[in-house]
Every structure is written in C-alpha cells, then in structure tokens.
Amino acid sequence: MRTVLQFFMIVFLLSNCKQKPQALQQTKAMGDLPKDFLEFYQKFHADSTYQMAHIEWPLKGEKGISQDTTARRQLTEWMPEAWHLMHLPDTTMSTLKCSFETVGDVMVIERMSYPMVGFGYERQFYKEEDGQWWLIFYGENTQMVQ
Description:
This protein is α+β, with helices and mostly antiparallel strands. The chain is built from three helices and seven strands; from the N terminus they run αβααββββββ. It has a single domain, classed as Nuclear Transport Factor 2, Chain: A. It has a seven-stranded mixed β-sheet. A hairpin with a 3-residue loop joins strand 4 and strand 5.
C-alpha cells in the first residue's frame, strides 16, 4: 500500500512540475484588470444569452446557509435552470466592498461583500487557451447580522 501511495505522489509531483508556473495572486483595481477580461465582464452582465453560454455547467460553488446564530457554507453545484442572472453591482453604494485578484493572466477572482446585510460572494473566472473567459466558481458568503 505504501509503495502505491508513493507512486501516486511521485506522479502528482511530476505532472505539476510540467505545468507552466503561474504568477502569484495580485490584488488589482478593476481598471488594472486585463482588457479582454473587462470586455468579457461587461458583456457577461449585459447579455443574458452570453452569460449562460460562458458558465461552466454544472457550476461548482458554495451556498451560504444561516441557521439560528451560525452561518456556514455548503458545497453545491448550480444548474442552468435554477440560475439567477447576474447584473453589474451598484458600485455607488458606499457599503459595498469589492476586490479583484489575478492569478497569472488566466484567472480573475472577484470578491464582493455587503456588510450591512451580511452577504457576499466570490466568483472565479478562467481564461481558456482559445481566449474565452468562463465563470467556473460561484460561492455565497452569509454572515450573521447582529
């Protein structure tokens, strides 16, 4: 059993060594994000057909669940028939907190939070080799509001 485990660990390490290393995550202002991502981001929120076609179904993610005085997350898969279309957030709200992180030039992680209502979310977008961007993760974050 031990040799089988060692074999799989070696295979895992070797396969990861072949991949091109990605740049470390960097926090960025929205205006500093890749131009092709910004174009995708605008179209993603403006065109419902485009949005549905650029989500990797079933979409992996987490649901935020509040019970009594606790908040937790539950792994889930979002399906197209239950998806609520996303629109551009109202960034004029002073209570909205928004951040973007990039991983190399192929991933953008967006985090939004609305502390006044105890809700937030994280979305992860990935760029394929053909240049197309996809939403690959959506996670809700529910916090208990006191």
